[in-house]
Structures are given as C-alpha cells and as structure tokens.
Amino acid sequence: MAQESPASRLTITVAVMLAVVMQVLDLTIVNVALTYMRGSLHANSDQITWVLTSYMVANVIILPLTGLLVERYGQRTIMLWSVVGFVISSMLCGQSHGLVEIVLWRFLQGIFGASLAPVGQTIMLGAYPSDKRGQAMAILGMGIMLGPILGPTLGGYLTDTLSWRWVFYVNIPFGILAFLLMRTIPDGGKITTPRPVDWTGFTLMAVGLGCLQGMLSLGDQDNWFSSRTIIILTICAILGMLFFVWRSLSTSYPVVDLRLLKDRNLSIGSMGIGIFGLALFGTMVILPIMLEGLMRYEAFTAGLVMAPQGIGAMIAMMFAGRMLGRGVNPRNIVLVGIVFGAFGTYLTTLYNLDISMAWVIWPSFIRGIGFGLVTIPLFTLAFTTLKKAEQAEGSGIFNLMRTLGGSIGIAIVSTVMTQETQVGWNQMGGLINPFNPAFHRYLTAAGLTPGPTTWQVLGNVVVYDQANMRGTLDAFMLVFYGFLVLIPLIMFLKRPPGSAAGVTQVTHFGE
Q: Which pTM value belongs to this model?
C-alpha cells in the first residue's frame, strides 16, 4: 500500500475509528439494557443472557479467519461488507420482538463485526509512514479502549431516555458515515492465488470455540459443573479444540496456522493479551456492580466516575506511541504499565462502603495509565519477529486471545464475586444470633432491641452489603494477581530489532 497524504490518512483514521468503536462498543453497551429487554422479549434472566453470548460466540469463531478473508477479498471489501452487515443486523436487533429473533440477529452482528478491529488496524498501519505507525496504533488503541468504558454509560443513558432498542439504532449513523468514508480508501491485502478453505478444520474450530464461549458465558449463572448443559458444552469444547489442533497441524492449508505459535513472541504475546483482557474486562464487570449496587450511584453517575480510567488509558497510549517511535524498548514500557495497573488495582482492594468518589476516580485513572502503557507495546512485541506473510494469521490468533481472555476474565470474576459473597454472608450471618455476647453489645450500643425486625434489617442492610463488598474486594485481588502474572511473561519476549522495527511490522497484512 502506497504512502497516503495527510488528508487521506485523516479520512482513513476517522473511517476506521468509527467502525472499530462501533463494534467494540457493542460488547458492553447492551449489558445495562438487559433488564428492559427481558420484559419486552418475554424472556427470563437466564435466557436473556444469550443476547450477549451469541454475539461473543460469533466473534470468536470469525476472528481467526481474518487473514483468510483478506487474502480472498482484500481489506477494503471486507471492511465495507462488515460495516454494511453490522448496521443491517443492528437495525434488525432493534426491531426484534422475540428472544429467538434477537439472538439470531446478534449472532449475525457478531459475525460481521469480528473483522473490523484487526482489518482496520492493518489499513491504518499501511496508511502511516514507518515513524508514525506507533502513533497510529495508539489512536486505534484508544478506540478499542473507549468502547468498553463508554458502553455502560451510553447504554444506560439511551435506555433511560429513549428505549433499549436505541442501543442498537445508535450504530446506524456511525456505520453509514464509516461506509461512505471507507469507499474512498485504497485496497490491499488481496492475493491472486489464495489458499483453499479447510471446511473440516473450520467446523471443528467453530464447535470448539463456540462451545467454549457458551460455557464461559453461562457457567456462573448455571452453577458451572452442577449443570448438565455446562458439562455438555465443556466436553464439546475440549473435543472440538483437540481435533481442531490435530487437523491444523496435519493439513497443508489449515484454516488457522497454529504452527505460528512456535514463534516465541507471538505465543507469549497472545498469552499476555489474554491475561490483559482478563484484567480489563474483569474490572469493567466489578466496578459497575460495586458503584450501582453497593454505593447506590445512578447508572449515568457510575459511568462518569469510571471515565477517568479511559482518560488515563488514552493519555498513556499516546505517550507509548511516541516512545516507540523514538526507539524505546517496548518491553520496558509494558513493565512500567504493569506497575501502574497493579498499583491502581491494589488501591481498590482497600475499599470499603464509606469511600468517597475520589477514591474511585484516582485508582481508576492510575489503572487506566497501566492499561494504556501495556496495550500498544505488547502489540509491537507480539508481531516483531513474525514474517510479513505470516502476520495476517498472527493477527487473527492475537485478537482471538484478547476476546477469549476477556470472556474468561468475566467468567472468573463473576464466579469469585458470587462465591465469596456467599462465604461472607454465611460467616457474618452466623454471628447474628441471640447467643452471641458480642452481638448483644452491638445492639446495645446501636440502641436496638432483639427481635425478628432487627434480624431482618441487619441481615438485609449490614450483612448483605458487607458480604457483597467482600466478594468485590476478592475479585479486585484476582485482577491484581493477573497483573503480577504478566511480569515473568513479558521478560521472555524478544526486543524488536532496530529502533522502531516493531512498530512498522505490527499486524501488517501486506502493502
């Protein structure tokens, strides 16, 4: 792809950012509208979660195919069709009147949206000169980080002021503008003799990844392996992935070339981005529950309080892009980011029910700096040792691990919060009994008298909130440990050869 003029680069940047933010936003914007959707669609609390699950399943199935699709149809064609399909399926989601209907349209939305981020990343890198590609990655990274952070706030606002259907209709104007701008950008990535499609491998991959995503999404609400559905999904996921790995390693033209994982930087970088996804999406699950459920914040206020995390991430990403362009070792930037992220998360483990708003804002801002410093340099390190012809495949694997890491993080964090809240309830609730001398002293000091009403008030107000806070703190501690696990992984990554070589090679499908 030839170098673009500044005006063309601006057009490409705006078009790609609109498409990427639109797709990433839909990962979280729907969450806050589920309660309203449940009544309209005549679904119970378990069934309505398939609105989220179907989207994630489609994403993880299509993401590894990104390189294959680009080889056959080219970058611009994939982006145009993806945007058109995403907007149409968003419209169909908004007009849905039944559960089966919206689950089907959400699945199609996930299929069309899966390729937007990796292909958009490639288009931007091809449009920027070598010394500014770190800046291009930082700009795109801001869009990827902005989606999960703005999603709950925007979704809550649209649902409260209009209706839940507008969390889907909001994609229409952005999608139309992105489509019009993308028609003017040059194409690239298409080759004259693309490899044949291994449909057997694709089927095995779809079964394995789809069942894995379903298990992660439904595990906590179905009490994991006490549910026959979860057991069946787990068995299908294991068998599907085992046969998929065997097929990929034994055929000449696999759907996803797993042999690329022999590259140390790609394999370790993919593991790192998976753990990073756990920390990012895990945090985005914990904070809204704590702020709205325990601190009694309104949805819109909670979103505003969480916004400094995104601000910190954006500032850090721009800084990281400049440092990469000046030849700073990406591994050092990632390590500094881990320190910021771990410190900001550790501060949250000291929370209690009486903290001020400032105690939420500043740790979030510090943690956001950590997120921003980790993201772009980790992209750089993961792809710096891959050949250019291999980077299409590598991009699919890398982005798949980011999505799966987020799903695993949400599942683990939700389970920890649920189980530790129950443990706290059992322990503290057991102390509320007429035979506990300390409890009698507490009642006397509080001016209360023993009786059924007192037990009920204490159980619902004191024990419930405190038990949930305990579960929240344990979940934050899990995220803190996730940052620490990243440190030894990063130490095994090779430094990019040359001052900015890593930046020039990140996920570039071809020029």
A: 0.75
